[in-house]
Each structure stands twice: as structure tokens, then as C-alpha cells.
Amino acid sequence: MLFSLNYVKHLIENFNEVPIVFFEQSINGNQFGDALFPQWFLPVVNSSPVLKKKFRDVFDLVNVMNQQEKQAFYNRIVSDLDIEILCNDENSAPIYTLREYPNLHTALSSLFNHLYSETLQTSVSLNNALNTSLTDYHTVWKTNNPFIVCPFCGLENYSSSIGTNRDPYDHLLCKSKYPLSAINFRNLIPIGDKCNQTAVKGEIDVLHNDEFVRRTAFYPYGQNTTVQLRIICITPPSAGYRGEWDIEINCPDQNDSQKLSTWMEVFNIKERYLSWIKDFMDGWKDSFLKYLTKTGTVITPSADDIRIILTTWKNSLPTIEIFSGVILLDAYIDHLINDANESALLAFCNVQLNLDEVTTSSLP
């Protein structure tokens, strides 16, 4: 996670009150009816026979539990509301697939998928009941999070917040495994298209690895430390060859090492970063040459002078929140300043030494 997001309090959050009230009333009652729902939600549920049946299916499965089982199930639901604790505390035990209640898990998945995909996204009656909409929430969210770049990768931009042109909300805890968190807005984060693809995060379980071992993860609305990158040149680039590279990614706070590992695995960070370096290194060089022209800076064949100019260029770049890829450009410039030899520095500046003459190439 490259930077934290600001959580937004909004009327749309009241939607998450529906399942809380429903389960609280269900464990204490034996009859399905209007009393199981918040009063404001009745026009919504009563106008949708499909939604009402899904609630009824869940109620019937909960109702066959004994009182002790009902209370234990409800306690787990309440504990799952705090997404931040689930991310930060590997000893917390989130509801996963409810393997002890497979039929209930199926019914819950069906209900919460409908609540998220149909009711929240398209229900006019819900918008009227809440006096707001998901589109309005996203507009307010963008106002309080004036970032352009996806905080999960730093490589792609968010889309515009105008109208319905909004980035897809990613479930940090995927709804296929954690259906009860499907409409929890602390679990919903706008995310870039590429990070949300099946080949990247998709339905990966953030809280468990492939062996189902519990792990911690960055909570997007928490206080996260910025990661540190170091680009390493294994084989220098040459004409027609972009070289071989490696990258070290660390956290200043060693207590976040497991969160860092989770983030890198879930979002396939290292592979994507190494690919980006090769794809954009020529563009970075062009940008630097344009910077020299714009500022009227003259390059001399002095490695120390070039390092000073590179430092000045780096300090002029926009921040990682508003310019895609600058997280890697910063690291690449650091590599040139700290690790590159004189030959590599001169090549980056398009400076060639011809006998006693020094020439600086112009932009195409």
C-alpha cells in the first residue's frame, strides 16, 4: 500500500444497518416479517419479492439453530464489522466460508450479492429511502480523497468521478469468501481497473494465504507507512537491450513486514514493477532530456554534476498520489544517483565522449 485513504462518513453507510438489525432480530424471534428490518428499509424490501425471498431463506436457516448457536453466529457477525481489526490482528477469526453451515453460506452469498449488485447499485427505492445514492457517495469520496493514482499499485489512474463513470469498488475482503462484508463501506475501496482484474487481486483472500494460514494486511483507511523501493541493475542496458533488473521493496516499520508481503503477493507488485521499469525507462530518459531543455540546463561530462542535476529533477516531480508511475521513477533516479557508474550516467543523459569533444544530443 503506497498511501492511506481518508474514510468518508456518509448517509449511504446506513445501508449496512440492514443486515445488523436483521440478524439481531432473527436470533431473538421465530417469525419472519417486517419486524426483522429497520423501519426505513421496509419500502425497499417489500417492493422486491426476490430480495425478500433471499432474506427469508437466510432466516429459515438461522431459525433452526439452537439459541446458543444463534448467539455465537451473531457475535461473529458483529466482530466482522471492524475491517481494520481483521487486517491488523492475525489472531482475530473472521467468518470465512461458514464451513460448519454450508447451506447458510450459500444463502448468505446469494443475499449479499443481491444487496451489493442489485439493491445498492440500482435500487431507486433504496436511494429514496436513504436520500442519497452510490454515485453521490463516490463524488463525496473523491472530494475527500483528491488522488489521481491507485494507492495499491501507483501505476494507474482513477477514472473521473463525474456521473456513473466511477472506478469499480473492490471488496478488500472478497464477497465470495466474506459475504457478510459485501456492503460494509469500510470494506469497499475504489481501485484501479488493472489491480481489480482476476489476474491480479480478483478473488484472492487477503486474510489467508494459499495454505489458509492467517495473515495481516494493509487497511486502506488506516495509518500505513510508505514503502521504500530500491532498483538494482543486474545487467546494464545497451543498444536494443533494456537490461536485467531487480527491485527491493521494504517497509520502514518492521512490524508491517507481513502486511508488506501480503500486499506484494495479492497485487503482484514485484512482477508489475519490473515490467514497468523496462517499458518506461526510455520514456524517463526522454522526460529528463525535455527537463534539461525546459530549464536550460547544460550537461557536462561530470558524474557529480549529473547527480546534482538528477536530484534537482527528482525534487521537481509530482507526488506519487497524483502522477502514475512516479513511485518507480523516483526509485530509478535514486538508482542513477547512488549506484550508477559514470558510463551509465552519461548514457542516460545522451552524452558521448568523442576524443576531446563533448556533445549533448538534442531532443528529436
Can you give me a brief rundown of this structure?
The protein is mainly alpha-helical.
Structure in words:
The protein has a two-stranded antiparallel sheet. Strand 5 (351-354) and strand 6 form a beta hairpin. It is elongated, with a radius of gyration of 26 Å. The protein has helices spanning 17-26, 42-46, 49-63, 67-79, 83-88, 102-122, 124-130, 134-144, 257-266, 269-295, 303-316, 326-338, 342-348; strands spanning 169-171, 188-190, 228-235, 244-250, 351-354, 357-360. It is mostly helical and 364 residues long. It starts with 16 loop residues before the first helix and ends with a strand. Mean pLDDT is 87; it is low at 161-165 and 352-364. Helix content is 44%, strand content 8%. It folds into two domains: 11-190, no CATH class; 228-360, no CATH class. The chain is built from 13 helices and six strands.
**What is the overall shape?**
elongated
Please bin the fraction of helical residues: 40-55%
Question: What spatial order of strands do you see in the largest sheet?
Answer: 1-2
Structural class: mainly alpha
Which radius of gyration do the C-alpha atoms yield? 26 Å
- Measure the end-to-end span: 38 Å
- Number of helical segments with 4 or more residues: 13
Tally of individual domains: 2
Strand content: 5-15%
Total strand count, please?
Answer: 6
The H/E string reads HHHHHHHHEEEEHHHHHEE
Q: Which blocks of ≥5 consecutive residues have pLDDT under 50?
A: 161-165, 352-364
Q: Residue-averaged pLDDT, rounded?
A: 87
Q: So what's the oligomer here?
A: single chain
Largest sheet: 2 strands, antiparallel
